[in-house]
User: Fold these one by one.
Assistant:
Number 1:
Amino acid sequence: MSTQVGLSGSAGPGDAFDSDCPSRAVLDHVTSKWAVLVLVALSRGDHRFSALRRAVGGVSEKMLAQTLRTLECDGFVHREVAPTTPPQVSYGLTALGHGVTGHLTGLIRWIEEQLPEVSAARSRG
Amino acid sequence: MSTQVGLSGSAGPGDAFDSDCPSRAVLDHVTSKWAVLVLVALSRGDHRFSALRRAVGGVSEKMLAQTLRTLECDGFVHREVAPTTPPQVSYGLTALGHGVTGHLTGLIRWIEEQLPEVSAARSRG
DNA sequence: GTAAGTACGTACCTCGAAGTAAGTAGGGGA
DNA sequence: TCCCCTACTTACTTCGAGGTACGTACTTAC
């Protein structure tokens, strides 16, 4: 008997430890190389495409567009187009987006603060 | 004049938005596909190699060993070998490991709970 | 006239992340 | 006797994430 009741399907919360659970895909999207930084950047306020690209150091236009599309599809980011010439597109977080990003900002801040400890551990190990 | 003072080098906390900052590497390690699940699994207590492999659904032996080595190198995981035959190796979190994992468990729990919302958004988008 | 910016889409290519499979060395069970 | 279990390592292979580069349609600036 397992101590865990595995309800597969749409009922109940997901189980990220189950390789078939759709939460795995969401986890992969959210923790992907650029998504973390994009989400945290957007938590500081709405950004235009180019502003976002400047904020997230090292991201290519292709990957930024791709990351934004994925996050928009998952409902974390909303896209707003102003009908000017040229069209000005601005990105921001949805309510769902603010939810995940809360955890991510905490994570990033922790890493930035504990970086000396990690570097020390790495040079030891 | 930029509004941001960029102190590169070892002084002060890192800046994950700078592509040259070493915190990027740590972020990539911690948010990698398997590291998230391994860390959260270990937060529930020490695990042997095979137990860990069973806990984290879908991970191969190679990737588990590789992930554990990276996390051990960064000082998040400690490895303990019991001098029995065959040697029993057990893995657990260090103090540093408990620090990051706090944020990760929050993230995973949030995703598992909000999965219906995300799925709904995805089918809409 | 030319260059640069805005907001992407698309094509091409590379390199490494990750999967598969097998080897290792000792011990215990069928 | 032979296979399985533990805890990995190594070799081979694949596939896709991600980089580079260019196109687009329009505007502003020099």
Note: Residues 1-10 of chain B have pLDDT under 50 and may be disordered.
Number 2:
Amino acid sequence: MKYTEARQQLIRTWGQLSTHWGISRTMGQIHALLMVSPDPLTSDQIIEELKISRGNVSMSLRSLVEWGIVHKTFIPGDRKEYFASEKDVWKMALQIARERKRRELDPVIQSMQHLQAINPETASAREVDELNKMTTQILDVAMQVDKMLDIGIRSGGQTFVRKLISVLR
Amino acid sequence: MKYTEARQQLIRTWGQLSTHWGISRTMGQIHALLMVSPDPLTSDQIIEELKISRGNVSMSLRSLVEWGIVHKTFIPGDRKEYFASEKDVWKMALQIARERKRRELDPVIQSMQHLQAINPETASAREVDELNKMTTQILDVAMQVDKMLDIGIRSGGQTFVRKLISVLR
DNA sequence: CTTTTGTTTCAATCTTTGTTGAAATCTTTG
DNA sequence: CAAAGATTTCAACAAAGATTGAAACAAAAG
């Protein structure tokens, strides 16, 4: 398989995957491109390579930087901004997990905590009971997952999952 | 807090969350409604409760059944179909994980395996090398996560995560 | 077999999300 | 500080995704 083909396929696959993760296809593609580039790239190189507009590249890069998986670098004597991706995939995965925890899990925990105090006079016992059972369970799951992610984040990806698999096998 | 308010908030929160997970808001809301209902519901009850169209309810329910987190039941002497959600949140979470693994992780693994054979003549050594490093890493992560999910699925959610946390703390 | 009741399908429509490109802004340099 | 280079913003547009509603279909009852 030729290099260019392979690279294109990686970019396509990653762009595809990213849409499942609340990240637009373009962001995923830019990210993939940065991942496989030995050196940091400028927005012009990205525009050229992926045929997308300057505005889109600018916004996508900002968003990737906000996710914490891409960073700006500067090359001495050059006025342009260069961008590079985190290259350690485990670190990347954990960084994404950390962000998603913050954006998705934390709000659920907060919401379920509010729901812990239902006035039992306001519906039949069965209904109140069923609702309470669900909120309690959801809260429980969310908090356990939260704890797990914390541990994962602290111990670093590779170590974390390796250890975990060896222990549970 | 009143029962009806609380229930509505749960439905809203769950619908919101679901959009982050490749599941439409409506599917999430229907699912939440089924989760907190002590008894199975018909599509008419869902239409009534959530004010959505019959067609949408039909399609959403089908999709939820395909995800394996909702099932049809029948009530003797009644011609209608009733629907009920899985009530064990851990089982639910694992079922979702299993499906996402199948839909998202497995294709990535397949794709990366294809990319393992790049002809080194077709680009500079640095470029080929960088691409190989990334595909290998991604494959590694994907396979480890895959393995982890398998273990999780086999041992059942609660046990799995509890054990995991106690071991790694 | 016909009617009634319940369910599914799908083209049309609406809503949301992503993208473009040009103007505005910011930065460096002569 | 003016000009050139680089980046960001944002209103208009395009694409993708979700929803509706009515017609087609299926199953049970009379």
Note: Chain B is about 70% helix and 5% strand.
